[in-house]
Fold this sequence. Notes:
16 helices
Amino acid sequence: MKIDQTRKQIIDGTELLVLKVGSRLLAADDSDARRQRIEQLIGQVAKLRERFEVVLVSSGAIGAGMAMTDAVKRPVDVARLQGLAAIGQSRLMSLYENACQQHGFHCGQLLLSRDDVKERNRHLNVRNCLRALLTDNVLPIINENDTVSVDEIRFGDNDLLAALVATMLRADLTILLTTVDGFYRRTDGELTERLSVIDEITDEIRDMAQGTGDQLYSTGGMISKLNAAEITLAAGEHLWIADGTDFAVLDSILAGEDIGSLFRTTRPRMSGSKRWLAFFTESTGELIVDEGAVKAVCEDGRSLLPSGLIRVEGEFGKGDTVAVCAPDGRRIALGMTNYTAAELNQIKGLRSPQIHELLHRDAYEEAIHRDNMVLVPAGQ
């Protein structure tokens, strides 16, 4: 396999990486086979740790629970899935710890839900814990907390969580190991050409991920991987999808070989405050703006002025996060507002002198200052 200089440069510039392993890669007919798969994986992770700090995001708790209870078919009932996750997670971590000890290090378990990374104090606690584990030469192993989560069981297979953890830690590279060797162009319903490098996730790319009838190319398959890539690219970091059926693929990745699909960012790295705004906050309202404001915000990098507001949706206070939307409803940005919803309803469409006169006090020139606003990638 030929060496790709783009990939080699990215690998050479990587200090911290997040590695995500899908549940299908850890599936096995019996406990011995599962143990061997995990030992093979950790053998490769040990090599990665010689060069980088590594965080492992691992699915597989439900599968392990199914094996332990002799379940033949994956249940559809959420409560039963949660129960299987509770049974399987302890077994999974026991296998990981035993494998890590063979290479002279320990692992630490973090079970997370989306709320854990989106609530500010919990977010900081998670980030501090991960950094402490890395400092202590412990391999962090993260899984979604399937025993209390609902949506996470149904969608994503940890792709989104891996991207959010990578963004939280400012990881240089995220690697998603799956059961196909990359992202493929789809022509007339057939998968044809592997896309080696993807610099931008266009509408055409999204359409290719919509499905071919195969489970991988449906919701929770390649769509979730595109969603993960959009996050890392927007943050200014790279993501690599590769076939992990043989974990030795990580040797090829280390060598910079042209395998899989590399989502290569062309953007500067996002600041910490803008990462928080872009990926971890929930908007409490919407500001619908005119086309002039869309251009000012998206193309000129300017603040959002009250004069560009058409309509205010929702109830929110000063300092809350709101979505900025184009006239057609597309989200174009997220930002922290300088005004309450009631005040913005009063001053929408007005210029600064009119605002001062109406509010009878000194007022902000901007509805949202550009330093407190981040553009939303197309498609999100």
